[in-house]
Specification:
4-stranded mixed β-sheet; single chain; 10 helices; 3-stranded mixed β-sheet; globular; alpha/beta
Amino acid sequence: MKNINHISYLNILPFGKAWLGFIVAIGVMALSSCSSDDPDESKSVIVTPNEEQTEFDKWLEVNFVIPYNIDFRYRYKETESDYDYYTVPARYEDAVKMAHLVKYLCVEAYDEVAGTDFTRRYFPKMFFLIGEFEYRNNGTMILGTAEGGRKILLSGLNHLDELFARGPEYLNIYYLETIHHEFTHIMNQTLFIPADFQLVSGKDYLGDMWSEDPYNKEYLQRGFITDYSQHSYQEDFAEMLSEYVTNDANTWNDRMEKADKAAKEKAEKTGEKTTTMPSELINSKLDIIRRYMKESFNIDIDALRESVQRRQADIFAGKVDLTDITVK
């Protein structure tokens, strides 16, 4: 499950109360095991419905279905959406761009550092797109969900152009961090989070209180990379990895400096002693994640971050045509 409360991103979208970005992931934490009933992952189990095939469908077949067995659904299906919200279809043009972004920034980044066999085996097998965010009656909005570790819903596709125009930070917050976050949960279902990770922040996890004052503002000085990281150690782990790979070294280091500065200022004001700086807590958790990813999946998270950042730079330099659906 992933929820994000970014108070600092005021007025980035033309919504009333757009200050609260909210990502909810509904995960069925079912453990998987090897058996003779497991499907042959080298063959697609996706059956194409009897619909008129567009050029985009043909492109998706070549770029998602055949190599990865991923069903990328851009046509609106009421049964795939949540009946508790008013939803609308994603625009065709935006769906094409998002397919390219997911492929280049996520799927192929993991290919690069872990190999195609890894991506084919672990990456979510379905993406479903809708055009608008799902608004809640408490002033929040759902950006995306993940169900059972296999399906990811990405909402708000019809705002892609305006968010893309604002730069990588907004593209990550509203779309790509969701994917990396949920993929981390999938890996955690395969191989459990190390016990020592849970001990770093220990009793500081808050459950549903993560979005309340003052925790939604003081998360960095408490040793958490985002406000939602405070929910539980599982969400902390996924937030840490997704934030690490989608932000460059300068941004990460700035957060560490900000965290320590805020902690020192609070200590001076209250007279409390600060025995462990928040950056130490965050980097301790990062070291455990680094070890886990290397030992469990042979993935160097620094190499993964480098790949994501380089590919992101390519996207914003215009080196990748996000509208090309030519089948090669």
